[in-house]
Amino acid sequence: MPVARRAALFLAALALVSVPAASALPRAGAPDPPQNLRGFLLRVDEPRSDVFSRTPSFAWNPVAGAVRYEFQLSTSGAFRENGIVFSDTSLTSPVAAPALTLPWITGAPHALYARVRAVLADTTTPWSDSFGFDMQPPAAPAPLPSYPGLLRWTPVDGAAGYQVWFVDIPKIVSVTTNVADEREFYTFHQAASWLAQVRWRVRAIRNDFNTRANGLPAVTHGPWSPVYSSVNPPFAVGPLKPLATVSDVVSTGAGRSPAHRLMPGFAFSGSRSFAGTSAELYRVYVFTDRGCLNRVFASAIVGSPAYAPRLTGPLALPQSTSAITTARSSYLPDGDEGPSYTFDRGKVTGNESLPPVTPTIGLPAGAATVGATPPVGATPPAGAPPAGGPPAGGSVVQLLTSSGTTGPPIDLWDTDWSNGGGYYWTVVTVEAKVPGALSTSVAAPGSAVGATTLPVSNATGLAVGDTLSIGNTGNIESATITSVSGTTIGVGAALKLGHGAGEPVTRTSGNIQYVDVELAQDACASGRVQRFGKESEPALTSGGEIFASGLSPAGELASASNRAAFYGAPLVAWTTALGAEVYAVQWSKTRQPFVPETDPATGALGMMTLNTSAILPLTPSTWYYRVRGYDYSLPTGAQAMSWSDPQAIVATKPTFSIVRDATSAGTKAFRVPAGGFSISVPSSWDGVSRSTAGVALKSKPTLVARLGAKLKDLASGTSALRFVAYDSGGASISTTLSVQASADRGAYAHSAWVKRAIAEANGLKNRVGPVACAQVSLPAGAGVRCALTVRAQGGGNEAAVLYFLRHRNATYSLTFTSSPAARGANAGLFAAAARSFRFTL
Q1: Collapsing DSSP states into helix, strand and coil, what is residue 823?
Q2: Of 117, 411, 473, 561, whose CB is crowded by the most CB atoms within 10 A?
Q3: Cβ neighbours of residue 402 closer than 8 Å, sequence gap 6 or more
């Protein structure tokens, strides 16, 4: 075959930079282990540390020829089996992002150790030197300036919430923000002897979802702070008015007030309604509109001049006048605050009294990924759909495990504060009322003897704990209400008498009801209202550069620069979002609209992690990624916080060279790092350099490769790489081999793929005569072998043998050609080369 024809088909475009890839042949001497293993939080080039307050990411120098890496974390410097807390054997880039909570643990010199080794096509490197480190909790929160009745402290990075210990009661309450009210000290006693000094301690709480491989516990709290003392002034009297919303920032409703990143507490002063009546109990309402109609939050009832929501619930308010007398000389415990109503008799259930939320532990499903493996370190809970396939009976793929209990929905959604969004809040006075007599009647069909429910014509005003008189003279009995549902009431003991429709039902006594003294709408209209905003999102950049680390296109470990480009799967990180308990990260091929891609490992539209880093499975292209937190103190199904602004990141094809490896007798081997394969050819394939029509063929090694410049990438369905080897025979090239990759369109069964491969051979435009195809089994996998004759460009025929192999959603074709006369002589040579073929990525 003329040299000019081959040269025109395969132009050389070889760079001189090699990237890690694998060889299929033995190497001379033992390979070196990975070097320079270290931990980091945001970027691999940050100052080195061996002490971390949250689970770090890890990186190491890449190993030439690595197919993948195996990474381990252990409490044993010798990495004994019972010390392994985390293991990942599927890393394709020199970075790791363990998705688990590490325990607080310190040692001499260290208590935790990391190590890594590279897996090559034909061997495995030794383990690296271990990287020792310790996990220490962040410093305990410190007090911050606040308002009377409201404790405030410094937020802790990565905290999911806080516990506050009132030392002198004693009592511990839980919150998700950095403020706590002093309701125990104020409610039903406003004398200075109760309020003047409050001693307290505080500690941060964290989550623990995906557990350690060896079952090692990881405590979910940090250290207690020292005992702090809060000094309060005498209780302020006068008209009730809002003062400020308080969390990580303090805002007073002014137009330039900053947005809160945590759920705020609400500080107010005074005790008189705008009608002039004084009260000792208060409730805060939050609305989305200035007119205070669309309510989104109702507080517990408190006696303090401040309110901050709690996970541990409201106070157990007195339900009788005698109980109020007792409350004036004691601290109230947590419990049911009893029936409460708005001024216009609408029933109110404070957010702290709502049922616990269900945490979000999964993401919507995207395209199904057949045969995928679950994410390392994330074990789906019992009953969860298998990762990688379509979710069973739903459209969410569960990605995290969840244990323990959650609290009620006591937080508010983010608002677009900078563009005009926000909330409005007010505070109203509340009165403890002893219910008077109230009459209604039995509704049809009445009740029989032994019934535990009673239909009534009107249940408005009736409440649990009320005592009723039921029936006419001679048919009267008493009952205590245990439930109210619509117009049906439940009674504590079975009725002893039957009662027909129309018989009287009279409330003779009842528990105290807590009723607003004024309408929130009227309070807002009178000017007792403040506006505030809430925004919390993770940061993806610093100084214009993203937090990303991975393998550069030149094959070196690197952090992102102004143009973030990586070869393979990069690790991206972000700062914590205050209030977030877990995070989701998604990636898209476009910034606007942002269309999330499916994670091939799980079938979900993105990833979830309780840490602040993730490895993105990107193919060569320009991508955009975004991150948001999930706040488990928001309502079930609506716990997503704000997305970060999308950031660009580039996954590149590498610059590469074809690398000659050690050879066995009579052969020489080459690996193509970018193409992810290696192959051996006869050592006689070592012709001389030739030049025809001004186009040179490189012959030392006798290979030609082409990447990217004029060919679309593999994902678009056309070739991304061609590899050619040839045997020089006088004035022409007598024997050739080419390897070409093309993308498979869609996921289909092996039998369908075989039919497509045979159809491709039959569809060759230069085919002459019939094609004989058969399925074969090669070391690289099950494939198809086709023998045929093709027409050469310069005239005449050539014998051709095609091997088709499938790997990672792509079809690789190995094409051998020779003169028809040499078909038989070369059959064994071609078969041996095909058997030597290995995938290395």
Answers
A1: helix
A2: 411
A3: 209, 359, 361, 381
The candidate with the shortest Cα–Cα distance to 693, out of 13, 7, 9, is: 7
Which among 315, 305, 237 is positioned nearest to 276, based on CA atoms? 237
Distances (CA, A) of 706 to 15, 192, 566, 812: 10, 84, 20, 15
CB atoms within 10 A of CB 783: 25
Give the number of other CB atoms < 10 A from CB of residue 379.
Answer: 16
The rounded mean pLDDT for the chain is 83
CA distance 25 to 45: 35
Q: Which of 784, 792, 804 is nearest to 765 (CA)?
A: 792
Place of tokens 């005698």: 322
The kind and range of the H/E element at 799 are: strand 797-807
579-614 pLDDT per residue, tens: 999 999 999 999 999 999 999 989 999 999 989 999
- Read off the pLDDT of residues 116-154 as tens digits, 9 standing for 90 and up: 999 887 789 999 999 999 999 999 999 999 999 999 999
Q: Phi then psi for 761, rounded to 5 degrees?
A: -65, -40
Decide which of 671 and 504 is more confident: 504
Q: What is the mean pLDDT of residues 193-201?
A: 93
Task: Please check the confidence at residue 563 and state whether its pLDDT lies above 70.
Answer: no
Token pair belonging to 178: 């950095």
**Residue 265: burial class (beta carbons within 10 Å; 0-12, 13-18, 19+):** buried
Contacts with 28 (C-beta within 8 Å, 6 or more apart), sequence order = 662
Residue pair 409/351 in contact (Cβ under 8 Å)? The answer is: yes
**Residue the block writes with tokens 């499916």:** 598
Q: Report the alpha-carbon angle 106-110-112, nearest 5.
A: 80
CA–CA separation, 558 and 552 (whole Å): 6
DSSP states of 728-752: EETTEEEEEEEEEEEE--S---HHH
Cβ contacts of 445 within 8 Å, gap of 6 or more: 455, 501
Identify whether the C-beta of residue 831 lies closer than 8 Å to the C-beta of residue 11: no
pTM: 0.71
Distances (CA, A) of 273 to 62, 241, 647: 70, 9, 51
Q: What is the mean pLDDT of residues 410-422?
A: 90
Q: What is the mean pLDDT of residues 313-318?
A: 96
Q: Which residues pair with 455 in a beta bridge?
A: 488
In 288-401, alpha helices (H): 321-327
Judged by DSSP in three states, 98 sits in: coil
Average pLDDT over residues 716-738: 52
Distance of alpha carbon 603 from alpha carbon 626, whole angstroms: 18
The edge-to-edge listing of strands for the beta sheet with 504-509 is 438-441, 504-509, 467-470, 477-485, 488-491, 453-455
